[in-house]
Design goal:
Radius of gyration: 19 Å
Shape: globular
Helix content: over 70%
Distance between the termini: 58 Å
Strand content: under 5%
């Protein structure tokens, strides 16, 4: 239980530190807070994928997932998703595609030698399809944006 609260405290401290750095960059260097916040969110997602690489050093899929996630995060910065004001859910813009890339790398490298392993791979594929659908719906809703009010 102590470890849980220690990790929670570190996470909250990290968030407060990231916001403080973003505000300082905006005040002193003129870098918009939205941009620095998005860069911090992308780095946080890549740190999580790198932790998977450290947890499974002999596996190939974390390396592929890390490389794919880095490429996807860079590509996201060139889409219309980042031309809007930053929000609290900004982390999901980077976390969803990263999780899809890592899951795809895991599915591609998963060896099937028994019925149980085949069932596990089928569950991973189902999760992959659900994640793709959720990501598509979320990104579509973000791109649609608010509707203008009708004047009566």
């Amino acid at each position: 239980m102590r470890t849980y609260f220690k990790r929670l405290g570190l996470a909250l401290g990290g968030v407060i530190g990231a916001v403080a750095v973003g505000i300082a960059l905006e005040d002193h260097l003129g870098i918009p807070f939205d941009t620095s916040y998005r860069v911090i969110c992308a780095i946080a997602c890549l740190v999580f994928v790198f932790k998977l690489h450290r947890d499974y050093p002999t596996e190939v899929w974390p390396k592929i997932g890390l490389l794919g996630s880095a490429i996807v995060n860079i590509i996201i910065f060139f889409t219309p998703l980042v031309s809007r004001p930053a929000s609290r859910g900004e982390l999901m813009i980077f976390a969803l595609p990263d999780s899809i890339v890592v899951l795809a790398a895991l599915i591609a490298s998963y060896k099937v030698e028994s019925v149980h392993e085949r069932a596990m791979r089928q569950q991973m594929i189902f999760g992959f399809i659900i994640a793709l659908g959720f990501s598509a719906v979320m990104f579509t809703l973000i791109l649609i944006g608010p509707h203008p009010q009708r004047v009566r």
